[in-house]
């Protein structure tokens, strides 16, 4: 999932989020267009050179592409591992104003059996942490980390790979230091709970936020500062046994997310692969180029593959002799991702 310089495409928007994004692009928010959009993404020629897997939501995972194949089969035939988001969303945490806990544990064991038999290779669960004057509370951190750990054990029991995603939101006017402090506390709590529940770290992918100043904070932190704070945070909290790290983009602009990924990787090899599992920062340009028009499928796909390659190249920077991009060359010659 995180090897060979590749990343994971997060295309698991809930129906409500997907509808909003389609409407903002002038596309009708229908089930047909939600499927057509994901089909445009996953049938992109050459996508598997830089993308290893794609995270889908339940409504898409259980649907068919236009030629009648189930989405998970179409993914595998395109050389992409099919993944599924299994949480049911962040809901208000009782007696904790402004905070949420992610739900979905109740029937998870049964749902995992169904997803595994339909071909899922991996799963995702996202916890959402808000920074505020007095947030996050210890209660919200423990509740969300406990749920992530319960989720990850169930997924491993089902023979699948869990992506554990504790997202510290960028919303707010806090500075880089505050994000670093909160992200460290969040990751400490998550790994404590993963240990309590006996989660096998070697079979777990962490999907964290980069350490960023809040979106309303001025002046912005520089790219190198972000990279240093992010790597420092991971090195002080993430056990070396973790299979890999795949960052979310969290509302960063597409170029900014790619630049941060390159700067993070430029700091040299770490105990884990430092990959990407972007949603918006991978697909925004493709959605704009496609705009729901079947005649523009190629334009959407060109935009997606270009951005996916840029991010894969960003992962290769530390290994590159000056002026060259060996990661890309290795991936091209591998071209064996199609099964
Ligand atoms: C693609 O969006 C995912 C689902 O979000 P909703 O359930 O809120 O619709 C989301 O979990 C996504 O995978 C992560 O936030 C990473 O996406 P970004 O765009 O932040 O990289």
Automatic annotation (TrEMBL):
Chain segments annotated as transmembrane: none
Pathway: Carbohydrate degradation; glycolysis; D-glyceraldehyde 3-phosphate and glycerone phosphate from D-glucose: step 4/4
Record's keyword terms, sorted: Glycolysis, Lyase
EC annotation from Swiss-Prot or TrEMBL: 4.1.2.13
Matches recorded under InterPro entries: Aldolase_TIM (IPR013785), FBA_I (IPR000741)
One GO BP annotation of this record: glycolytic process
Family annotation (Pfam families): Glycolytic
Class of enzymatic activity (EC top level): lyase
Keyword Lyase assigned: yes
Known catalytic reactions: beta-D-fructose 1,6-bisphosphate = D-glyceraldehyde 3-phosphate + dihydroxyacetone phosphate
GO molecular-function terms, A-Z: fructose-bisphosphate aldolase activity
NCBIfam families: FrucBisAld_I
Family membership noted in the UniProt record: Belongs to the class I fructose-bisphosphate aldolase family.
Protein name per its UniProtKB record: Probable fructose-bisphosphate aldolase class 1
Organism in which the protein naturally occurs: Candidatus Aeolococcus gillhamiae
